[in-house]
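Class, study these two lines:
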Amino acid sequence: MPRLRLAPLDYAAAMGFLAYSSSAVVTPIALLILARELSFGLAAGGLLEVMRAVLILAVMLTSAFAAARWGKANVLGVGSLVLGCGLMLYAISPTYGTILLAMGLVGVGGGFVEALTNPLVQELHPNDSGRYLNFANGFWSIGVLVTVLIGGELLTQGVSWRFVVAGVGAMSIVAGLLYLSLRRGGVVVADVTSRHVLGHKRDILLARKFWLFAVAMFLAGGVEGGFTFWIASYLQLHYDALPRAGGIGTACFAAGMIVGRIGGGWWAHQHRLRPLLIGSAAAALVMSLLVPMAPNLGTAYVMLAFAGLTIACFWPSIQSYAVDRMSVDMTSLFILLSCAGIPGFAFTAWLMGIVGDHAGLHASFLILPGMVVLLLVTLLVDGKPGNERPSSTVER
């Protein structure tokens, strides 16, 4: 297997994923403290994720037009800056309602980051995107790991959640500046009009195979979102643990995802993506059943690490596999698939919050094995693994 050859913008993508993932988990690790300070319940906490996701989804649907007009690197830079400013507003918000508004701004910036980072990496490495996408997405998990460990420790030591959120905002602003400073290293593509973008989206939405991959992305996003959003709160409530323990649990899950994605970056050549996805889904089913059965924190940490390892490849590998299986515009396909994954992430977080309010978070974690079963069935339905598009051909 040849070594990875990273372009300058790969480093910007890595930093962007670090900041973006930190913005996604900073609320979960501080959620119980937020709920006590501002007087709201678990369902209202899940609604914060829904607000973020709704704005992410809305922006993603328009991001292809922005990328066609100004270029992916420029839009990613501005999006990261908006994300950082939203987090700064979040950090000074005095009420739950103000935080909801700040989460809207976080969603706007995050929408551009979510929509265009993977297409940028695909554009930089069109012939072997599976490896580079898994590698780049590994930094999402690194961001989760760093944030939950440092944030959980700071919260345990009595540092205000406002300083933790502001720190994540500063990191996102740095990512935005890095994108803008390296933007000339991007791939130059032909001008694309709005009419072309709409035509690409229409062709994709009319393809039956797209809807199969969209369902897979929804379920994959849901499984990842359920674990990522609720691990910290679950461990604190179920084991009567400190915020530090919740952060460590989320960090164990993230560490497993780091190993899975960085390892996938070295091993997951295009022809290996389908068996990797099916095998990982089967293993994820086992681990999602075992996590709620953990008798103590130590066992839960181990099981969460293995759970993260088994689901690590889902998001980037489904997208890369879909690009190979469909002869359509790459950027629009990535965006529309992410538009399916983000609602899965948010819906599952919200649904688990509702179940948690009525039956406890332990019961809500039983939703995840069912989603993994549906994902495994969807992957098996896809049929023979042959490509419809040569791996060296990428439409821009």
Remarks:
- DSSP finds 15 helices and no strands in the chain.
